[in-house]
């Protein structure tokens, strides 16, 4: 378990209420309290006494509730105000005989503040149930989400609900290409995506359709995608890999109309969290089965994971400040796979030639400026300029824009 140093942050005081950051220790506290009603009642009563009398001694807090200790040190006012508000609301609801269905403690806590940042690094240790609570994705004001060091092997499709997200940190998890859902594309304001130290073979192809991205960190993924670069000098015959039908996958039969409607919505790539054409009641169902499908990068088709498809490798040269980065896509048919690979390869070759041209022009300009002036034995002043060798003629010969320079 990673804990931030207690001194790294100012305690929450009456004069420091502008903080809009929500932390992992608060999440662990709320999750624990909403899963244990007896514990929740016990601490509600103690905190109520603390609200009434500042000097009330809460007694020893067991080590297993370390997140309560940290919350009381760092966000005491916020916690006490929340408890008070909940008690008042409970009294109103009791009088009105009202029951709030589906509302969790975490939902109410998040909605009682307009949080802008969720700092949830290192909240799970190895072997924990590290399922991310769906409530955290339903905060419309969030711009910063950090989930580093959590052993995450998947990101839920709910991430697409965070329409204002600008910064997403997923560093040091166990994410593979299939772990990052296509719904991330609905985060139109995402500028920074940190994917360092995961298990990716290449970047997810749909990132290329996110023009808002300015920074994507990918270091530490299989040695900078080293093995994927073996496809760099290949073409359509090598970069499209057939993924066969998985026979042991048990499919429910027959599927409901709702299921087929959901498949069509997922394939269409519409933002079902925002599109008014999608009934709100259907959104939760779509989210619940979203990860059962692959989405074609080229056409509007979604197929169940067990159905055949194609993995496609392309290269973007350059990409956001990097010389060359591989991408991995999924396509529903060979023609869709070719529809992605062929234009991408032409673009890659064109970009590589442009880089070669710029390099040659730079070398040529340098060499023109460079000259050796010396005096011959008979006293004459002479000037020597080195011979210019065009870069393209020194390639491996496989193709003109090749980077395998034979020196
Ligand atoms: Zn397709």
Automatic annotation (TrEMBL):
Mind telling me which Pfam families this protein's record contains? LRR_8
Keyword tRNA processing assigned to the entry: answer is no
Residues in a coiled coil are none
Q: Which UniProt keywords apply?
A: Leucine-rich repeat, Repeat
- List residues traversing the bilayer: none
SUPFAM superfamilies, alphabetically? L domain-like
Kindly give the InterPro entries that the UniProt entry links to this protein.
Leu-rich_rpt, LRR_dom_sf, LRR_domain-containing
Q: Name one GO cellular component term.
A: cytoplasm
Report the PANTHER family cross-referenced here. Answer: PTHR48051, RAS SUPPRESSOR PROTEIN 1
Please give the name of this protein. Answer: Uncharacterized protein
* Highest classification ranks of the organism: Eukaryota, Metazoa, Spiralia, Lophotrochozoa, Annelida
């Amino acid at each position: 378990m990673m804990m931030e140093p207690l001194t790294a942050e100012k305690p929450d005081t009456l004069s420091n209420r502008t903080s809009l950051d929500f932390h992992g220790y608060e999440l662990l506290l709320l999750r624990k309290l909403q899963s244990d009603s007896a514990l929740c009642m016990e601490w509600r009563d103690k905190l109520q006494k603390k609200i009434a009398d500042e000097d009330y001694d809460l007694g020893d807090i067991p080590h297993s509730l370390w997140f309560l200790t940290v919350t009381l040190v760092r966000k005491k006012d916020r916690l006490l105000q929340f408890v008070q508000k909940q008690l008042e609301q409970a009294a109103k609801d009791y009088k009105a005989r009202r029951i709030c269905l589906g509302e969790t403690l975490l939902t109410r806590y998040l909605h009682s503040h307009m949080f802008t940042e969720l700092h949830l690094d290192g909240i799970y240790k190895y072997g924990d149930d590290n399922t991310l609570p769906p409530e955290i994705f339903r905060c419309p004001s969030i711009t910063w989400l950090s989930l580093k060091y959590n052993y995450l092997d998947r990101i839920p499709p709910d991430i697409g609900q965070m329409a204002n997200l600008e910064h997403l940190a997923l560093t040091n998890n166990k994410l593979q290409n299939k772990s990052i859902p296509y719904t991330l594309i609905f985060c139109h304001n995402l500028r920074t995506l940190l994917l360092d130290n995961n298990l990716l073979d290449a970047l997810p192809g749909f990132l290329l359709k996110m023009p808002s991205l300015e920074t994507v960190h990918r270091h530490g993924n299989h040695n900078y995608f080293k093995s994927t670069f073996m496809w760099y000098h290949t073409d359509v015959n090598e970069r499209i890999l057939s993924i066969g039908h998985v026979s042991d996958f048990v499919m429910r039969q027959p599927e409901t109309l709702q299921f087929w409607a959901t498949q069509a919505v997922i394939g269409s790539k519409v933002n079902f969290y925002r599109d008014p054409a999608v009934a709100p009641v259907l959104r939760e169902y779509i989210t619940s089965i979203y990860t059962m499908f692959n989405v074609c990068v080229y056409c509007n088709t979604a197929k169940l994971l067990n159905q055949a498809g194609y993995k496609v490798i392309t290269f973007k040269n350059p990409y956001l400040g990097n010389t060359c980065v591989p991408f991995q896509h999924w396509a529903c048919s060979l023609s869709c796979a070719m529809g992605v690979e062929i234009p991408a390869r032409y673009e890659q070759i064109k970009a590589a030639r442009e880089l070669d041209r710029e390099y040659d022009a730079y070398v040529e300009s340098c060499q023109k400026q460079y000259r050796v002036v010396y005096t011959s034995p008979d006293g004459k002043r002479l000037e020597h300029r080195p011979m210019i060798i065009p870069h393209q003629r020194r390639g491996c010969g496989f193709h003109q824009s090749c980077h395998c320079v034979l020196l």
